[in-house]
Amino acid sequence: MFQGETAVTLDDKGRVSIPATHREAVSKLSGNRLVATYNPFEHGCLWLFPEKEWEQLRDEVNALSKAKTVHRNLQMKLVGAATPLEPDGNGRVLLPASQRSAAGIEKKAVLLGMGNKLELWSEQAHLAKIRETINEEQITEDMLDLKF
């Protein structure tokens, strides 16, 4: 289970270091194997899944009918772009240049633990998202039962 927010820096080769707080979970959950892909719902973010979590999602997404454009778009962004990653001895993973470019992730980024996955946000996209507030019209029925 991943949680927490960490400011990270990508090196000149496009590698990002998985924080020590998450390395044990990555090793335990996936035998040190991750899969990087696009966040199909929000620009400026890549998703990093432990391999087993990824395989389950991949199979669910691939099972969707190819007759619907939205399904094909989801399959393209998630499955078509999926890239296996394995942290090196220093806990770094090399992110594909195409994914970094499309998400606008440059030197500075933010890594978020989001339960079953990690999210890697461009610094600017993360700041913009965090500054957004949830207004009354956006509150769902499911949210009403939360105890803040």
UniProtKB/TrEMBL annotation:
The keyword Cell wall biogenesis/degradation does not apply. GO terms for molecular function: DNA-binding transcription factor activity; transcription cis-regulatory region binding. It is found in: Cytoplasm, Nucleoid. GO terms for cellular component: cytoplasm; nucleoid. Residues 5-53, 82-125 form the SpoVT-AbrB domain. GO terms for biological process: negative regulation of DNA-templated transcription initiation. SUPFAM superfamilies: AbrB/MazE/MraZ-like (SSF89447). Its main location: cytoplasm. InterPro entries: MraZ, MraZ_C, MraZ_dom, MraZ_N, MraZ_sf, SpoVT-AbrB_dom, SpoVT-AbrB_sf. Transmembrane segments: none annotated. The keyword Signal does not apply. It comes from the Bacteria. Signal peptide: none annotated. Keywords: Cytoplasm, DNA-binding, Repeat, Transcription, Transcription regulation. NCBIfam families: division/cell wall cluster transcriptional repressor MraZ. Forms oligomers. HAMAP family: MraZ. Belongs to the MraZ family. This is Transcriptional regulator MraZ. The gene is mraZ.
